[in-house]
Amino acid sequence: MPTTPAPQPDPRTSKTLHNGIEVLELLSRSPHGLSVTEVAEGIGVHRTVAHRLVRTLEEHRLCKRDSFKRITLGPGLVALAESVEVDLREVARPVLADLAEAQGATAHLVVPEGEDEARALMVVEPRHARAHIAFRTGRVDPLGKGSAGLALLSAMPPRPGEREEVSLARRRGYAVSHAEVTNAVTGVSAPVVGPRGAPVASIGISVLELDDPAPFGEAVVDAARLIAGMLHLP
C-alpha cells in the first residue's frame, strides 16, 4: 500500500472533493477492499479524515463496508455509470463497426461488472463475412475467463495468483483466449485505458479460426486507443 501523499490539488478546486475522488479511484484498484487505515495511507491523509470521507461516500452509496469492515465500491456507482455507458456506446459504435468489417469477425465492447465479472455492453456483427460468431449484448462472464476479461485484468494491478495469460496480455497489449466462454471460439481483446491506467472497457473480436493472433491484436489495440482518444481519456 503506497504511503507517499498524492500531489496536492489545485488550490482553486475543492480539496475535500479531490480527496473523495481519490478514495474512489483507490477502491477501484483494490477489488478485495481496504480498511479505513489503508484508505488514509493510500491517499495520504489522517485516519480521521479518511473516516469522514468514507462515511460521506457511504451515505451516497458510492462505497460500502462488509462484515469485516473492509471498504469496497458501492452500488450507487452503477447509476452514475449508466450515463457514461451511453456516451461509451455512442463513441464505440462506429469503431466496432469498422473493426468488424475490416477483420470479418464479430466485434465486442465489454465493461467491468463489479469485482469479478465482465459484461458485454455492445456486440457488432460483420455485414459481409461468410460466417461469424453471434452472442447477445448483456452477457456476463467471469472476469478471469475469455479475452475480454483477461484484457481488463491486464490493465489492473497484478492480483495474487493471476493467470500467466494476464501477464502476457500486460506485456503485449492484448489478450488471447480459446474456448473459455464459448466452445471453439477464439477471442482477441485489448483494454480501453482510462485515467491512471484503470480499464474503462475492453474491445475485441471473436473468431472460429485463428492461426496468428498478432494482426488481430494490432487491430484491437488500435481500436482501443481510438476509443480512448475519442473519449478524451489521458
TrEMBL record:
Keywords: DNA-binding, Transcription, Transcription regulation. Residues 14-75 form the HTH iclR-type domain. The keyword Transcription applies. PROSITE patterns: HTH_ICLR, ICLR_ED. Coiled coil: none annotated. Pfam families: HTH_IclR (PF09339). Residues 69-233 form the IclR-ED domain. The keyword Metal-binding does not apply. This is IclR family transcriptional regulator.
